[in-house]
Amino acid sequence: MQDAVGRLGAVDVLINNAGITRDNVLLRMKEDQWDQVMAVNLKGTFNCTKAAIKIMIRQKQGTVINIASSPPHGNAGQANYSASKAGVIGLPRPLPANMPSGDNRERGCAGIHPDGHDRCHTRKGAGGAHKPDTAEAPGHALDVARVVLFLASDEAAYITGQVISVNGGLYM
Fold this sequence. Notes:
5 helices; 6 strands; 17% strand; Rossmann fold; four-stranded parallel beta sheet; alpha/beta; two-stranded antiparallel sheet
């Protein structure tokens, strides 16, 4: 973060978007599979957020945006991944209250959980395999990017501690 400040002059927005998987059913999951996923997905988010928040408090402005797939809906064999992403989504909620000035308008913290890209916009191809329906797919990455851009903008200055689902209506 200090390198970023040195090169860019400030840290205005932090987007936490890292993630790995080490899938295995819970009864067969090794502790190192659990620890690796937690280290990257959750502890990495914690470390980056802590470093950025120190700078943002001095600047009296900044936004933290955490991106995680939908934590309550992890796939089979992803107890570690699902738990880590639930933590990633939970992290922004208490952050504004822990800021010294309490001025949430200048320190937005939010989470996004995109999901449903392959599930919402797929159709069965030969042999029953699911294939992306590119004719109808809205460009999932672009949909998520638009929400990130909004949350990082002045227009979202009063939105904090929220989690926004970008899922094409999968959970309606």
